[in-house]
């Protein structure tokens, strides 16, 4: 009987938590409409933080992004400058699909990333090969971007391993001229 109570409680908790999750459709009527192909064309700079599961800020960084689109294919060349002196690179190869979704690959991404937009929001899901202390871990990234105006975008990313949130990343993108640099 005790197992029945435990499973009922677990099921109710999962049902409650899943009903509280945000859906991309929640932003259908929001404006401005976020077009990543337009926003990430040219130079963009972003500043961000990485917080662990306790919300402690473990790292700060700045990233310079150079976007170049040819038709429905784009390259986002990212250079990350971390506060501890590390510099890392990621080169996204993105393709806008006929249905409006985006597919992407990068050096440290396992498989294909899938992106969808609705209203002022864009959601990007992928598996990242995260190098940490000499080992590499695969973590799931649930990346949400929100366009605030023509120059600025906020980004919140949840990083999970085995369904457990291990970190959050928050970024603020700015492409207002003159575009600033990290260094």
Describe this structure in words.
By secondary structure, this protein is mainly beta. It has a single domain (36-173), classed as Beta Barrel (Lipocalin). Helices cover 12% and strands 57% of the residues. The protein contains 2 helices and 10 strands; from the N terminus they run ααββββββββββ. It has helices at residues 2-19, 36-39; strands at 42-52, 57-70, 73-82, 87-96, 102-105, 109-118, 121-132, 135-147, 152-161, 164-174. The chain has a 10-stranded antiparallel β-barrel. The radius of gyration is 18 Å and the shape is globular. The model is unreliable at 2-20 (pLDDT under 50).
Helix-strand layout with pairing:
Elements: H1 2-19, H2 36-39, E1 42-52, E2 57-70, E3 73-82, E4 87-96, E5 102-105, E6 109-118, E7 121-132, E8 135-147, E9 152-161, E10 164-174
Antiparallel strand pairs: 1-2, 1-10, 2-3, 3-4, 4-5, 5-6, 6-7, 7-8, 8-9, 9-10
Overall, the morphology is globular
Across the major sheet, the strand order is 1-2-3-4-5-6-7-8-9-10
SSE ordering: HHEEEEEEEEEE
Structurally, the number of domains stands at 1
CATH homology-level superfamily: Calycin beta-barrel core domain
Largest sheet: 10 strands, antiparallel, barrel
CATH architecture: Beta Barrel
| Secondary-structure class | mainly beta
Short account of what is shown:
The protein is mainly β.
